[in-house]
């Protein structure tokens, strides 16, 4: 790191201290100017929010006439949400201003304390300047006396006068020498104190720049969050426009402004509804289809054979009439979520009905006059999630990582590590009804943090969107394609209708490194051969830097042996598998704070002197509560909440990471962190054959 003191020792009048001191004071100015900048940005966001609110009001005042009228509500909702996004950004900017002002106050205290600590350096600078003045004066005096002495010698003055001049020259020389000594002492004192002060100034500047960068990062993240939210609002706007089809607009206009379906001259017997008893629709069945299908033939309609629809009506018990408002909302949500297939028609009693769901719509006025009715057959039972717009909807996430590592014999610092990870999100079953009944449900967004060690991401492109232009190297934002997510969850529910939640695979990622600190367990091994006898030892040590609070469980060490191996001796004892010809140690749980290291030893004898490469050790374990890559996930926005983030890692994972770096010396054994015994054996045998 560049050192300030090395560049501010010299200069005219040793002004380096003064430059560094005033530079420290400039930090307060920078903080105040940053606060002013953020305050101006907050004012801009407030103005923009107010403008969007006016735009929303303009949309709400749109003409209620015509088939286009419902679209104004889409504009109003979108504008309101945009106004809230920018209003929230303004609030974040104001919070940031408070943080900057707080930091400015802390700066004042630090600068006052530093001023008291470096006062000795200021005195040393002043002393050095004084001694420098005395030195220059003594040098000039000495030079003058020497010049005078030389002149007198050339002129041949009397000896007595010459002796006086020599005495004065000698005194001037002594004075000059004394000034040099004092200047040197002052210089040494200055260098020591200046070095100490320069280090203080450097520490202050580094801390100041780090804090300023953190404040700027908070500023950047606030803007980035808002951009993501704005993108979500625009995505919702597009979805809303797409979801409101032309047929829906025309149908809504017909329902609101229609003047009636009764033709002139028809019978008047059905004009009055007041004489009807309180009934509800319980079933709609095609009388010609015994199995419950709407059509008895493969075609969409059949002109030769008219279809008859029987409406079975039965009274509702009086005890079920209290929840009419809730039933009305549920019926609206159910009917509103149904999709009308185009160009499908049947004939019923001489009248053309374009869809069986139109029949439901034709009873709508009738049901409103009666919804003391409970629409039997429509309710699917209570949902564990409320439809309230005031509550956030819960989701959960799981991060699962698999580590494969290859250690080079006795050197635990020579290591190749590969981590592959999966991110899964879990949705409660009740949320499917919410998404189905609310096609304009808020977009679900999440952010991956601490991703600097991750090399590659492979998102589920059918379900996720992302912005490739994001600038922060430590975070990455994603948001869902909500119609695709809803369809995916519906299919999962059809396959497993009794499940209480459904897991959705979101993305995979990969990280690789040659840093041994990325492995939670450091290993080193030694193999010694003496004739037909082979001795192997393994040292293991937990790495606290990777997962400091995580226990490694189900720890196993596997050592495959030659088929002629006999006279096995192990410390601690290991189990022997005769068929697979391997030793297996099962260790107790390992953690950086408890049982963090140990040694395993084994020896055996072969019929012949081994001539192949040394054996390879394999280690297996699992852990939970943290991710080895450091990756984490959080939700963006307040409409959803993260109820749980579960983290787990294990060796292997179906992909064995192995590099055949064979040692030239047989004094070391290679070690493999792997996912399965069979994989280990096959790799070892393949390596020996190779």
Account of the protein in words:
It is built from eleven helices and 22 strands. It has helices at 16-60, 71-117, 119-155, 159-243, 246-257, 324-336, 356-362, 364-370, 430-437, 482-495, 677-689, and strands at 279-286, 309-315, 346-348, 351-353, 393-408, 411-428, 445-449, 456-459, 464-466, 475-480, 501-513, 521-530, 533-542, 552-560, 566-571, 575-577, 582-587, 597-605, 616-624, 632-636, 640-651, 670-673. Strand 3 and strand 4 form a beta hairpin. It is flat, with a radius of gyration of 42 Å.
Descriptive key words:
single chain; 690 residues; alpha+beta; 10-stranded mixed β-sheet; 4-stranded antiparallel β-sheet; 11 helices; 42% helix; 24% strand; flat; disordered C terminus; AH/BAR_dom_sf; MHD; coiled coil
Write the layout of secondary structure elements.
Layout lengths: L15 H45 L10 H47 L1 H37 L3 H85 L2 H12 L21 E8 L22 E7 L8 H13 L9 E3 L2 E3 L2 H7 L1 H7 L22 E16 L2 E18 L1 H8 L7 E5 L6 E4 L4 E3 L8 E6 L1 H14 L5 E13 L7 E10 L2 E10 L9 E9 L5 E6 L3 E3 L4 E6 L9 E9 L10 E9 L7 E5 L3 E12 L18 E4 L3 H13 L1
Parallel strand pairs: 5-21, 19-22
Antiparallel strand pairs: 1-2, 3-4, 5-6, 5-22, 6-11, 7-10, 7-20, 8-11, 9-10, 12-13, 13-18, 14-17, 14-19, 15-18, 16-17, 19-21
Helix pairs in contact: 1-2, 1-4, 2-4, 3-4
Pfam family, one: muHD
Subcellular location: Membrane, Clathrin-coated pit
Family: Belongs to the FCHO family.
